[in-house]
Design goal:
single chain; binds magnesium ion; 43% helix; ParA domain protein; DNA_Partitioning_ATPase; globular; four-stranded parallel β-sheet; P-loop_NTPase; plasmid; two-stranded parallel sheet; binds adenosine-5'-triphosphate; alpha/beta; AAA_dom; Rossmann fold
Length: 320
């Protein structure tokens, strides 16, 4: 356990479904809470409630039940909705979230995006919790807005599929850029390849993703969307900003492959690494067992890499 960690709220706001947001949230919740002994709150803001289901909670109850709307817009304390699934973190399940977004939409436009920050994060982060992690849906709604305002630190998982870079582009230009322009500070702590399985010394989809992440100026420009002089739409960085430095600061070392290493791989001089985070059947099995991965399979080989992401959350960035 790290002494006196700096409290931090983290969101996983990828505007594309199925890249591993919910898997990351429950796994990192387990590592930070169960394995490292921090006080952690995990909040499911996805109306589909996959995370809640995966931890054994129902997402629909009668309208009388106390839910997030009563905390954000009413007088109810967060204690009324916090559960303890028993994996080292407290949990707010996705209960009646359609009605929560409806209620927020009726509130005044500006104030309604600040509710999560004011009523939950400002009240409890640093006091009761060291870390608050928000799982959000793969499309934008009122609760996504609330999450990015409340938790200005993002982790972005990407899968080796053709839509991956489009997903990041949407997220960068429609969410991160505008948030930075309007609110100033918003950090992408890391972008992380997930569900990897193929070799990278051949032209596989895994190689395609890693090569784009590790070499392209346009990829770097998405990570800095909304900052001065950055044109994320056309994919350019301001003069004097090094692509390599931006990538070093946003890709964990286990997924960072530099130009000389690509050359060595292609010349057959280097054993092609099998870059994490790899596809592991234990993720689906843990979900079926209604447990986070660290509880279900503490010896899982990929937990080492999730641990590196937890380090990045603790430090507040890759190079601090
Ligand atoms: N490293 C992995 N190995 C094996 N399966 C994985 C891995 N990461 C994610 N998955 C699986 O991929 C699917 C999508 O993952 P997950 O639900 O975490 O993504 P998501 O971004 O939260 O999706 P949504 O936007 O639908 O909520 C799930 O079935 C999950 O079990
Ligand atoms: Mg999800």
């Amino acid at each position: 356990m790290t002494a006196n960690p700096e409290p931090r709220a983290v969101c996983f706001p990828m505007l594309k479904g199925g890249f591993g947001k919910s898997t990351f949230v429950s796994t990192l919740g387990g590592i930070l809470g169960d394995m490292r002994g921090h006080e952690v709150l995990v909040v499911d803001l996805d109306p589909a409630g996959h995370l809640s289901t995966g931890l054994g909670y129902y997402t629909r109850e009668n309208d009388e039940a106390t839910d997030l709307a009563d905390v954000l817009l009413g007088d109810e304390s967060v204690d009324a909705i916090v559960k303890n699934p028993g994996h080292g973190f407290d949990f707010v399940p996705a209960l009646n979230l359609e009605s929560v977004t409806d209620a927020l939409s009726k509130d005044s436009v500006l104030a309604s995006d600040l509710k999560m920050k004011q009523e939950l994060v400002d009240e409890h982060l640093g006091d009761r919790y060291d870390y608050i992690l928000f799982d959000v849906p793969g499309s934008r709604n009122k609760l996504t807005n609330n999450a990015v305002v409340a938790a200005p630190n993002a982790i972005l998982p990407l899968m080796p599929v053709p839509e991956a870079l489009n997903g990041l582009r949407e997220t960068a230009t429609r969410l991160v850029g505008p948030i930075r322009s309007q609110l100033g500070n918003f950090e992408i702590l890391a972008t992380v390849p997930n569900d990897m399985s193929a070799r990278i010394d051949h032209q596989t989809k895994d190689r395609k993703l890693l090569e784009s992440m590790n070499t392209q100026e346009s990829f770097a420009s998405l990570l800095l969307a909304g900052r001065d002089g950055v044109d994320a739409r056309s994919g350019t960085l301001p003069a004097g900003t090094e692509v390599e430095t931006v990538l070093d600061n946003h890709i964990p070392s286990f997924a960072r492959i530099r130009a000389d290493e690509w050359e060595a791989i292609d010349a057959g001089e280097m054993d092609p690494p099998k870059p994490p985070i790899r596809h592991t059947g234990a993720v689906g099995d843990a979900y079926e067992a209604r447990e986070p991965l660290p509880s279900y399979d503490p010896e899982n080989s990929q937990l080492e890499y999730f641990g590196e992401i937890a380090d990045i959350i603790e430090r507040g960035g890759i190079e601090q």
